[in-house]
Amino acid sequence: MMQNLPWLFLLLPLLAAALDWVLFSKCSKTAATLSILSAAATLALCVAYLAGLNTGAPDVYTWMPVAEERLSLHLGLLTDPLAMRMMLVVTGIGLLVHIFSLGYMKGDTSNLSRYFAGLSIFMFSMSCIVLADNLAMTFIGWEMVGFSSYLLIGHWYHKASAADAAKKAFITNRVGDFGFLIGILLTLGVFGSMNFADMAGKAAGIPAALLTATVLCLFCGAVGKSAQFPLHVWLPDAMEGPTPVSALIHAATMVAAGVYMLVRLQIAMGHAAFTDTACAVIASVGAITAALAALIATQQDDIKRVLAYSTLSQLGYMVMAVGLLAGEAAMFHLYTHAWFKALLFLGAGAVIVCCHHEQNIWKMGGLAKRMPLTVLCFLMGTCALIAIPGFSGFFSKEAILDAALEHCPVFFWVGAGVAALTTFYMTRLCLVAFCGSARAHGAEQAHEAGASMLLPLLILAVMAIISGYGFIADALVPYAGFEAHGFAVGLPFYVSLGSLGLGLVAALLVYGCGKRSSDPLAGNALSAALRERLYIDEFYDKVLIGGVQAIIAHIIEFIDAAIIRGLCVQGSAWLTSRFGLLLSKLQGGSLRAYTFLSGLGLLVLIILLAFNF
Amino acid sequence: MLIWLILIPVIAAACIGLLRTPGRATALLSAGLTLVLGLCAVLSPTDCGHDCLSSFCGMPLQLSLALPLSRIMLLLTVLVTFAAVLGLKAPDKDAARSWAISALLLSAGATGAFLSDNIIAFYGFHELALIPTFVMIGCYGRGNRRTIAWTATLYLGLASMVLLAGLLILCSEMHAWSFSTLAAAVQAGIEPGSPALIGGLLLLGFGTLVSLFPFHTWAAPAYASAPTPIAMLHAGVLKKFGLYGLFTIAGIFGDKCGALFGCWNNLLLLLLLGNVLWVGYVTVCQTRLDDMLGNSSVMHMGYLFLAFAAFIAGQGHNELALQGAALLMLAHGLSIALLFLLTGQIEAQTRTLELDSMGGLAQKLPYLGFMFGLAGLASVGLPLLANFAGEFTIFVSAFADWVPGSCLTTCDCILSRPFSALSQMLGGLGPVQLTLVFALWGLVISAIYMLRAFRHIFEADVAHASARADKLSLADMVAAAFLALFIVLFGILPPTCL
């Protein structure tokens, strides 16, 4: 009985979601309480496990029994450090976001039940990914987080932009899942099982091309879910959802699921399965995403979009680390990033609410005076993100840069460049939004956020500062046997200090102390391209979806309607009926025609007989 | 006891027709009774013996649940029939009577086909069930109903002829006229004289009934045009007859099924890609909800044919394929029935089915939006809903026999050369696996059209057509909830057919 406690991670949120949706759809307070309670209970359970509660392996439930054991679909849970510490990130940030939502969604009581049901479904699905002991179960969670993301991005579905963004997120993820599913099936063939525990050591003797194909197909799933180039387009649009959702799903946890999955596979399959080609592709995709997203972030005006592109860029770091076979560094950065990026998003959420739902940073300004505590928390998050020595982000970024320098210096220099850009756009954001004087009515009336919003911010701010230090990281980073290395003062340290300084100075020079009312860098072709997201979205919309796919679909539709249904089916029906008409002419009831025809027949018969045919 | 599952709806139909009892109420009573009886039969541990109705045209009419798919199909039939009758909403009283009669006869015919042991009765029941379909489309259909009804009649009539020829040759060569004697004959080692011919005829006949590409063009217009209960019952239940027949006969032949169907397998793989990808893109182009759903139903048949191909390629040992197909038939039947039910309700509310002229309906009728979202996401294959269980099982089954380096070509016959060339290029995948890889793109396609439909109908601003939406009736809500409940239930606890 006791060993089955981890199943509560899945059952409690699922139950809460079902109750919220079915029973309490009209009483939003109960629904919210229920969801918060389930999040709190799972967090407590998780803490108990990390504190040493060990109940043995949970039972495995056979979902679809088949005679051949390896093909049966099982649902089983892992309780290793990788899974349980990841659960702490998920449930911890999850609970804080639940609480924050109470304040943030105050004005939207009519749909609050649906909102909290969505959050609970998300908690269920994310736990399913994290705890899964086989790829089939991972896939179930994978699809379900996609669904909850769809639900929550489209929470305000009466807004066309939100509805479109939700649809875009789901379909883009499906494209990634197409590859992921092929990868899962190939894994089943290549490794003989979908179970993580049975994969170890099976990679030997498999042709490298097949391994590469398998790993890259699995990677497709991560490209979709973790929004890597070229499937990154959905994440910035996903900011149409409520801000707490962006913090939980689109910054801290779900988008990191791709990284988690890859690291899990690296451990299960062994590094041998990750061939050089596969690693090169993974690391390059990560590096490209990091660089592109950081560039685009420098010219975004919407506070949430800046953070969204920053998330993309940081995810790129993590994926790059996975490609460099530095899973430890990737998980370290995932862990610190989860805290400080959730902080930044919730901080942004508080700012947005207090400015009467204004998201444009150029219409803010001077907020440091009006809501000092929120801004202070936001600054803590910023310091962690731009990796100021001593803050959590610094340690994890250093770990990735170390790994990059060791394996492939090109990625190291890309990483350093991205770090400079990160500092630049975050400094720009802070200067414009918080310094100077208010540039719009909303910002003039801004005031400090309420307690339910401030409390999560303060907790997260503490985590953003301390989570990178050995005493806490060693116990909490989701990686078995993780040890924080005291950083060495070497090339990576100097380079990251250099890029930090470069970004800071550049931003200060360009944006001063927030006195400007518009972006001095705007107005040229480069800025326009960056504002238009390098035309990637437009390319997809106009060329791939509106062009290639629409043309193919319409050609197929035309052939189907005109040739198969028209020419072949209707045509043969027409021919048949014409032929029938023709035959019916032969028996029109005219006696003379009948006599003539029978005479003709007789004649033919006589001739045939006479000439002995 | 099983005979009552057929007799009750027939008697009820006769009551409505001859005694002029109220259409919907009588039908509801009958459907309720068959639902209870059917659930009892499905859950009973025995196969209910060989229920015998003396004889029908000289043939013993035996009904049983002994065949592996019978239970699942019976379950599907009683569930969909109940929902269809509950949600029945005809324009007037006379129409209500004829709709109810047709729905009952359709369900009686389908039940008979799925339970019959006698092969000719199996065929005959299906033919009987087709008649109300044609009549209802011809009399009460939307759009160009006469042409659509005639096309479907001719198409399915021809398919049935081909099928009958195949069945007759099979039965006479095996000297067995029922599934049980056929199984005994196979056990005894009797082999048909012309297996490939029989296999081809069966595949063509059954395939056309299930709208196998390129014999699919009758289906979408017929479903789009048919009155709601008929569309629900035909697309949801009766169409599965072809697959039921294929799997049953292949299952009886067991490891010898390759002789019948093996040489057609590669061709079948190519054609099913036509269902998934070709019809998938046709679906994307549709601008009316009913056309879209009709085509989507054709598209999803591709995955069921994939399960059949995997079953054949595995020489009848691939039980996962059978399991997956059974689940997906059940799930698809429930979800497409729910979608057609909701389409009827949407049309009743907005008086249009043009996707472009709708919008914002979820603000007016959140319940309808919830149900449509659930049914749509089920058909897209979201986990925890029934279709996912079926689809995922089929996907795994396609890879069940594959180990790296072994390209399992089932038979050196049609199309084996291009397949093996392609397979060598792509890392040694066999034809079934290769087809699956392409067919998986269908998951993206179905997400595209289904979410687009949801977006157009339910989200964004309230359109003019949606503005007049009124309240849903209790029966509408219950009928939808009934199907939705089972979609969720079977998604979480998939029933096994083995």
Largest sheet of chain A: 2 strands, antiparallel
Count of β-strands of chain B: 2
Percentage of helical residues of chain B? over 70%
* Helical content band of chain A: over 70%
Q: What series of H and E elements makes up the topology of chain B?
A: HHEEHHHHHHHHHHHHHHHHHHHHH
Q: What class do helices, strands and sheet pairing of chain A give?
A: mainly alpha
The largest inter-chain interface, given as chain pair and residues per side, is: A-B, 56 and 58 residues
Can you give a write-up of this model?
The complex is a heterodimer of chains A (613) and B (498). Chain A has a two-stranded antiparallel sheet with strand order 1-2. Chain A has 24 helices and two strands. Chain A has 613 residues and is mostly helical. The longest helix of chain A is centred in the C-terminal third of the chain and has 51 residues, at 536-586. Helix content of chain A is 71%, strand content 1%. The longest helix of chain B is centred in the last third of the chain and has 32 residues, at 319-350. Chain B contains 23 helices and two strands. In chain B, helix 3 (70-86) packs antiparallel against helix 10. Chain B starts with a helix and ends in a 6-residue tail after the last helix. Chain B is 72% helix and 1% strand. Chain B has 498 residues and is mainly alpha-helical. The interface between A and B is large, with 56 and 58 residues.
Structural topology:
The complex is a heterodimer of chains A (613) and B (498).
Chain A: H1 7-22, H2 28-50, E1 61-64, E2 73-75, H3 81-104, H4 112-131, H5 135-153, H6 160-191, H7 208-225, H8 234-237, H9 243-252, H10 257-269, H11 276-297, H12 303-323, H13 327-354, H14 367-370, H15 372-385, H16 392-407, H17 409-434, H18 441-444, H19 451-466, H20 470-476, H21 491-511, H22 525-531, H23 536-586, H24 591-610
Antiparallel strand pairs in A: 1-2
Chain B: H1 2-18, H2 23-43, E1 51-52, E2 62-63, H3 70-86, H4 93-115, H5 119-140, H6 145-174, H7 179-187, H8 195-209, H9 219-225, H10 228-238, H11 240-253, H12 257-261, H13 265-285, H14 289-313, H15 319-350, H16 361-364, H17 366-380, H18 386-398, H19 416-425, H20 431-439, H21 441-458, H22 464-467, H23 474-492
Antiparallel strand pairs in B: 1-2
Helix pairs in contact in B: 1-2, 1-4, 2-3, 2-4, 3-4, 3-10, 3-15, 3-23, 4-5, 4-10, 5-6, 5-10, 6-8, 6-9, 7-11, 8-11, 9-10, 9-14, 10-15, 11-14, 13-14, 13-20, 13-21, 14-15, 14-18, 14-20, 14-21, 15-17, 15-18, 15-23, 17-21, 17-23, 18-23
